[in-house]
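Consider a protein example.
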Amino acid sequence: MMRSLFSAATGMRAQQTNLDNISNNLANTNTVGYKTQKAEFKSLLYQTLQTKTTTANGEQKPIPAQVGLGTRIAANTSIFTEGPLMESERPSDFAIDGQGFFAVRGSDGNVYYTRNGSFNWSIGPNGTMLTTSDGYPVLDSNGQPIMLPNGVQAERVSVGEDGSFSYINAAGQPVNMNQRFGIYQFNNPAGLERMASSLWSETDASGAPLNEATNNGLQRSTIIQRYLEGSNVQVSDEIVNMIISQRAYQLNSKAITTSDEMLEQANNLKR
């Protein structure tokens, strides 16, 4: 009887985590570059009540009698399908059409990766550089911050589909800035560690970042200026998942109530 109480309790805890995950997805419906998460469940250990050779008369029994001990959350898997492209009026907004990630340098000096291309031209002590909304420098294919040449206005900068930067000079001619976006891919993007502000961190599970500029075997991503990649959260799917999670939570709660009533009846037999 106690086994049913513990098993149902694990189910309630797992569904609470699942609901937390669904709520986070819904909260980030309008977050640029957000990737939805899906809770993965796994069963816990099984307790063997009878072996497959245990019978009253010693005959061979084909299957054992086992009872499970509940469930738990195994992982929150990130789904890296591309989100919808949203048109923007800002020339410093960019979207990636492909499997690549932008690279940025965090305040701790480490390199992080993002699909959020909502950038700004920020004036610093070393000149004007391209940064994220949090002020982190955006890196080029050589791992250096993308800097604006002296005397060039940000409105004159354009970016090609290959991520190369250029600007229009006073004569109306395009001038190559000799810099291009650093776009990186991973063998297993689901292994990336999710950070704040739509940033991702490299892990052993994700593998080392692969620079599209130096790895010819990769399918190159396309950079689209004046567009942003929206969240890939499907609201209708998340609402359905929320209903399923709520019903599962209620069923586990009912199992606990039923087990408690059966224990109460068993205790009353002694009176």
In short: The chain has a mean pLDDT of 90. The chain is about 20% helix and 30% strand.
